[in-house]
Amino acid sequence: MPTGFKDLSGNQLDALREIGNIGAGNSATALSQLINRRIEMNVPNVTIVPLEEVPELVGGPETVVVGVFLRVYGKAPSNILFLMPQDSAFYLVDTLMGKQRGETKSLDFMDQSALMEIGNILSGAYLNALFNFTQLALLPSIPALAMDMAGAILNVVLVQLGQMGDHALVIETKFISEDDGINGHFFLVPDPGSLETILTAVGVE
Amino acid sequence: MPDLVKVGMADYKVGKAPSTLISYGLGSCIGISVYDPHSKVGGLLHIMLSDSSQSRATDNPAKFADTGIPLLVKEVVAAGAVQRRLVAKMAGGAQMFAFANTTDIMKVGERNAIAAKTLLKKMGIPILAEDTGGTCGRTVSIDLNNGDYFVKTVDKGERKI
């Protein structure tokens, strides 16, 4: 088994990409049904990046984003973070609340609650798919939301990894709605010990 | 254009006037600066965690308060600062996500701030200003011309502490 993220083989990376694909596919379907729009997603990126470079994936550490964070409990503890650019989050709220596009200019309590619920539903769909594939039962925590600099939000996810090493394994999928108004990044960041569990569960050792 | 030196996560940089050292998007991380006003030499350290002994990976001392601060001080002294003239400023250590039942991982910022303060005090380096805690991400910078320390947040813009 790999001792560090850097030692992962091509096969193992492929398996992780497939996990991301199935999970995110399920999530994209859920999102699409919620807002009644087609959602496109890319082939997931499985990347092993130095911790300090992770914020670059979402446009740099100072970009203002909305993040919904969930801690994943169970046999393969992980973190889930759903990041949206501010404009996308506002548009998503407009869509969910039946408002005109552009009406939402800040997030009140109801708006935040709605976005957290989106995070909840997407994570649930993702983890369900993961369960069907790996038989690993994973439970998400209640979601938490923040609107702030991307670097600051990613900090939370990366700090735990920082205790174990200098690199993060990030399974990232990008969502884009058909009218281009909503896009988001879904990150699954397994704790270092969890990686082994996931890979064993899919039979790629 | 001032000479802007970027300090990444779990990293530090040492410089002298007219440089500005800057670290973008700190959440629970803390940006600790030490500065010698006489020689105008200083450094900025971006720590993620408080205590290296609690962790498995100890390869990067700049990641932790307990190993990063002594390293930073050593390096600024090597660059021409005098240790007894050093003054410190710090900002960061926010709690970005508020959970109903705050678990241990959510208190990282608070622990970072306490660890940094304790260590600076032990080393006899006075903390002239600090802006820690809260729920906001921060970008921090120190202007090595005069030791001014700036904190920028999304809501409040940039201000000097």
Task: Jot down its keywords.
heterodimer; A: 205 residues; alpha+beta; Chemotaxis protein chec; eight-stranded antiparallel sheet; 5 helices; 8 strands; 27% strand; B: 161 residues; 60s Ribosomal Protein L30, Chain: A; five-stranded mixed sheet; 2 helices; globular
CATH class of chain B: Alpha Beta
Count of individual domains of chain B? 1
What is the percentage of strand-forming residues of chain B? 35-45%
Compute the number of helices of chain B.
Answer: 2
Q: What is the CA-based Rg of chain B, rounded? A: 15 Å
The CATH topology of chain B is 60s Ribosomal Protein L30, Chain: A
Low-confidence stretches of chain A: none
Which runs of chain B of at least 5 residues are low in confidence (pLDDT < 50)?
A: none
Task: Walk me through this protein's architecture.
The complex is a heterodimer of chains A (205) and B (161). The mean pLDDT of chain A is 81. Chain A has five helices and eight strands. Chain A is of the alpha+beta class. Chain B is α+β, with helices and mostly antiparallel strands and 161 residues long. Chain B has one domain: 60s Ribosomal Protein L30, Chain: A (2-Layer Sandwich), CATH 3.30.1330. In chain B, 18% of the residues lie in helices and 37% in strands. Chain B has helices spanning 65-78, 108-122, and strands at 3-6, 11-16, 19-26, 30-36, 41-47, 87-92, 127-132, 138-143, 148-153, 157-160. In chain B, strand 4 (30-36) and strand 5 form a beta hairpin. The radius of gyration of chain B is 15 Å and the shape is globular. Chain B starts with a strand and ends with a strand. The model of chain B has no long low-confidence stretch (mean pLDDT 88). Chain A binds chain B through residues 51-52, 55, 60-62, 64, 67, 69, 71, 141-142, 144-156, 158-160, 162-166, and chain B through 8-11, 24-29, 48-49, 54-57, 59-60, 63, 94, 96-100, 103, 105-106, 108, 135-139, 154.
